[in-house]
Specification:
Blueprint lengths: L1 H4 L1 H27 L4 E3 L2 E3 L2 H6 L8 H4 L4 H15 L4 H8 L8 H13 L17 H4 L6 H13 L3 H5 L3 H15 L6 H17 L4 H9 L9 H15 L4 H13 L3
Antiparallel strand pairs: 1-2
Helix pairs in contact: 5-7, 7-9, 9-11, 9-12, 11-12, 11-13
């Protein structure tokens, strides 16, 4: 914070963040297009066989390339962010980079859990203000059960309530990946999807103010002006009903949610 409180150093730091974002975007594009192994400005970019090993995800390998205990550093940084940043926008951008999909899973999970436990997810900037392209934080869809359960825990515990009101990237992230897991997953992910639906619906039953959040979850990525939007919405409510597994109280909550959307 001392660095960010001085105008000149803050300007330099912001410029470095912009350059870092541009560099990250280029790395992501290079990684997806290239069929060779190359070194780009000191960051290893693997493709072909090696790319398969790291699932085309971990361009930002902080733990591997910097230090094995990098998760401890991230947790310490989040503690500082919670204690002294007062929601500083630039500080928030710097912390949010650890939630990028190209970051190692261990580091991403440590960052999310630390932010959630400190109740500061709402202090992160909107997704379109984060370092790098917004899609880098959203794609590919999260399929790791540990992450999805952490997102659901933050949602049901109320940690994301303010984040949803303040357009924080944290709510956008959790909603996108949870919705994708439930409505876009294959049959193999149905068990986890059902578990997530039950958690969210039970939370909705207990916390009426979550209605707007759950509506947003159901409507995620549905084009409102599309002719097929009605059919897609019907399909999603069928998925929610199936996930309730004949539990009458949960089915009643799903019906109430459907009615609130004018269905």
């Amino acid at each position: 914070m001392h660095l960010l409180q001085e105008d000149r150093s803050r300007d330099i730091f912001c410029a470095l963040q912009e350059l870092y974002g541009q560099h990250l975007n280029r790395l992501c594009q290079k990684f997806c297009k290239s069929n060779s192994v190359e070194e780009v400005k000191g960051v290893a970019v693997a493709t072909s066989e090696e790319a398969m090993e790291i699932s085309c995800l971990e361009i930002l390998r902080f733990q591997e390339k910097i230090h094995g205990s990098y998760t401890t550093f991230v947790e310490s940084l989040v503690d500082q962010f919670a204690a002294v940043s007062y929601g500083d926008f630039v500080f928030g951008q710097q912390v949010a980079i650890y939630l990028h999909r190209k970051v190692e899973p261990a580091v991403r999970l440590a960052a999310w859990n630390a932010l959630s436990n400190a109740y500061v997810l709402e202090l992160l900037p909107p997704l379109d203000k984060c370092i790098g392209n917004a899609q880098g934080y959203l794609e590919p869809l999260e399929d790791d059960e540990k992450f999805l359960e952490s997102y659901a825990k933050s949602w049901t515990s109320g940690v994301l309530d303010k984040a949803s009101q303040r357009d924080s990237m944290a709510f956008t992230l959790a909603k996108h990946h949870l919705s994708g897991s439930v409505f876009q997953s294959s049959d193999s992910g149905k068990t986890l999807g059902n578990k997530l639906v039950k958690l969210l619906i039970r939370c909705y039953a207990q916390k009426r103010h979550h209605e707007a959040m759950l509506k947003s979850f159901v409507l995620q990525d549905i084009a409102q002006d599309s002719k097929s939007s009605g059919n897609e919405l019907d399909r999603r409510f069928e998925i929610l009903k199936d996930a309730c597994e004949m539990n009458s109280s949960l089915l009643g909550e799903v019906q109430r949610l459907k009615a609130s959307l004018g269905q």
